[in-house]
Write a structure and sequence with these properties.
The structure is a single chain. With about 200 residues, this protein is α+β, with helices and mostly antiparallel strands. The chain has two domains: about 1-105, no CATH class; about 115-200, no CATH class. It is about 45% helix and about 15% strand. The chain contains six helices and five strands. The strands form two sheets. Strands 4-3-5 form a three-stranded antiparallel sheet, with no helix packed on it. A two-stranded antiparallel ribbon has the order 1-2. Helix 5 (about 160-175) runs antiparallel to helix 6 (about 180-200). The radius of gyration is 18 Å and the shape is globular.
Length: about 200
């Protein structure tokens, strides 16, 4: 298992402010039983642009030669990060009582037993967002198109800056209509969407 320091932020006055960091552990695909090794490693500079790095650089992430394999790794990493965020006290970098961040393959796989609840919450959030969209007064085709963009979270970074700004604003508007329990329950997915809105275009 490799690890890196995940930045944890909270929203203040409409902006996300760093509150700390937490160590997150993730596996290489070979550790999950796949017969494939990274072709290289990369990290990110101060402008969040990828740069080549050595395998022993603790801040470096693996890069796989086959884009389909890379897609699988990216999905695993996203799931690990989401699980870690869900175990933190909202607005802090502190773990909730009796929660830990998996640091072994065995502990990581055990979290899969609870993944059904996470998927349920994700569906509930997007159903709520979709039902809210018509209240913006936009046309039905616009609402449908925007929902497709927002619900395809992984591809949001590929959108134009203007469209990402629109998505970010819509998420905030929708959040303002939610009760405290819903915000707590759906904070992870809202944060994930917001982070993808500020991520650089990988193709730029």
């Amino acid at each position: 298992m490799r690890s890196y320091q995940m930045v944890v932020s909270k929203k203040e006055n409409g902006e996300y402010v760093k509150v700390g960091e937490v160590a997150v552990f993730y596996p290489l695909l070979s550790e999950l039983g796949l017969n494939v090794e990274p072709a290289s490693y990369e990290t990110y500079d101060k402008d969040n642009k990828p740069v080549a790095a050595a395998a022993d650089n603790v801040e470096a992430f693996p890069v796989y030669a086959d884009e389909k394999v890379q897609y699988v790794f990216d999905a695993v990493l996203a799931a690990v990060k989401a699980t870690a965020r869900n175990r933190l006290v909202s607005g802090t970098a502190n773990l909730k009582p009796d929660n830990t961040i998996a640091d072994t393959i065995e502990a990581l796989l055990a979290t899969g037993e609870r993944s059904g609840e996470a998927l349920k919450q994700r569906r509930e959030y997007f159903n709520s967002f979709k039902a809210w969209l018509p209240s913006t007064g936009k046309s039905a085709p616009w609402c449908l198109g925007m929902f497709d963009i927002v619900s395809n979270v992984k591809n949001i970074p590929y959108q134009s800056e203007a469209r990402k700004a629109t998505v970010k604003d819509l998420i905030a508007q929708h959040a303002a209509t939610l009760d405290t329990d819903s915000i707590a329950k759906w904070e992870r997915i809202m944060t994930q969407i917001d982070e993808n809105c500020t991520a650089p275009d990988p193709l730029a």
